[in-house]
Amino acid sequence: MDTILFIVFATVAVVCAFNLVLQKHPISSALSLIGVMGSLAVLYLMLGAEFIAMAQMIVYGGAVMVLFVFVIMLLNAGTEKPSGKSWFAQIAGLPLLLAFVAVMGFAIRAGLPGLRNVEFGSWIGGTAERIGQLLFTHYLLPFEVISILILIAILGAVVLARREID
Amino acid sequence: MNFILISLIKMALVFAVFMTTLAYLQWVERKVLAHIQARTGPLRVGPHGLMQPMADVFKLLTKEDLLPPYVNRFFYLLAPFMAVALALISISIIPFGPEINIFGVRTLMQISDVNVGILFVLAISSVSVYGIALAGWSSNNKYALIGGLRSSAQMISYELPLTLAIVSPLLLANHLSFRAITDSQAGFYLGFIPRWNIFQMPFPQIFGFLIFMIAGFAETNRVPFDLPEAENELVAGFHTEYSSMKFACFFMSEYANMITISCVATLLFLGGWHPPFPAVFSNWLPSLVLAAAALIFFFQATQPARRIDRFSMPIFGLGALLLAVVFAIPFVQTFLVPVFWFAAKAGFILFVYIWVRGTLPRFRYDQLMHFAWTFLFPVALINLLVTAFCVAVF
User: Fold this and answer.
1) Which domain holds residue A52?
2) Is there a contact between A50 and B153 if contact means CB atoms under 8 Å apart?
3) pTM recorded for the entire structure
4) What domain count does chain A have?
5) What is chain A's Cα-based Rg?
6) In this complex, is the C-beta atom of A57 within 8 Å of any C-beta atom belonging to chain B?
7) Is A84 within a domain?
8) In this predicted complex, what is the ipTM?
9) Neighbours of B293 (CB within 10 A)
10) CA of B358, closest CA in chain A: separation in Å?
């Protein structure tokens, strides 16, 4: 059952990711990205990280992508015109992509030697309780630093937006 | 195997009840609005218009399914499907009653008890914007586009106070599952004040409840926040180009969202299925209420306003009397009384929805945004801070 679900949602994620790049219209690309986010959330859920899965749906699938779609609709962006591929991209694109995948695969195999096969449902550290405990004990400093960083980003956005209006 | 069978039975049951409520909610809305405006409402199809929902469904099913030539076909067809599918999903994690024991089979009165239940509802509600936004965009119509844009801006804005209002009951219950949140509200202060979150000492969540309700009205695009379909400015808003069953999908999703929001408000603030009185009284109250309803029906039959009332009222009265007897059987009480209280509370909130629709005029768009960001959001923050302080100190 787990394996079937994994195959289904992994396929959906990969197909949506390809579709994201191949689609000509920004709205189609944005919706494909939502598909990727949603299937990733399901994969997190199957790994036992239910809080991360829901946060993924709320933050990425909901808030961030709604803003994307909203901006695309507001600007009424039309279909993208193919801008004539460069000769370098045409010749070296595929080989470079394969080389990149190979290097990444090698780096992961070599850099993380303790990798094991994933077993669905064996990990139970993904509850909201555990994550909250970790955030407020072990990862307290990074957590607070990130919240200050986000606050600065919000203030920066407000300042920039005000300058535009004035 | 047993688990799958029980789950299937529960799914069928919840789906049937949910769909019936969906259909009849619209009848109730038309009736209540009519009586608010001193009219009679639907009256022709069946006694007191009771078959009206069936007639509407048949009308919508048999209408011509128009597909305008200038729309973006794929998204135009996808949008109503997304809207209705996302609206119907949330009901699957709403608990309607405690764990029950029927002929030795123990089961929860809920399709599935997700331990991040409230987050699941938030995730679904944050994704359900796409149905409306896509409908507005793909229709290729300026009214529809403005409706879709308004709707997405409104839903993003009101999601903040909604979420902040939800956090306080979570702090009080210290859990994310609906069942645990509701169970934390069982019992009574001094033997008679229910420990619902709305009466929770030392800081009652009444403000949280009001913020949640206001934001919920905006999330479901209901009056006074129904700017996305303001008919005097936007024809019909995001569903201008939709007809027949595709329009019905949007209609259904609006009512399904209403029901979900009412259920969530009941669970978070009004103690879910926990009765407002100690069990001795609350177990017999449903029977009493139904018996009183039967008496009123019989009394109405003696002075019929219309000729048909002489036959229809006694039948309704007999039905109510039968239900009163059913509710009086001790074995049935264990699982029907919690559902009665849950339905009573959620039904009351649904009635408030309709009542507000009959009472309040529509906001202007800038007022709507101003209200969300400069009033509702700060108030929700303060409410959350005070609640957190109380939870930390007491």
Assistant:
1) 1-76
2) no
3) 0.84
4) 2
5) 20
6) yes
7) no
8) 0.79
9) 17
10) 32
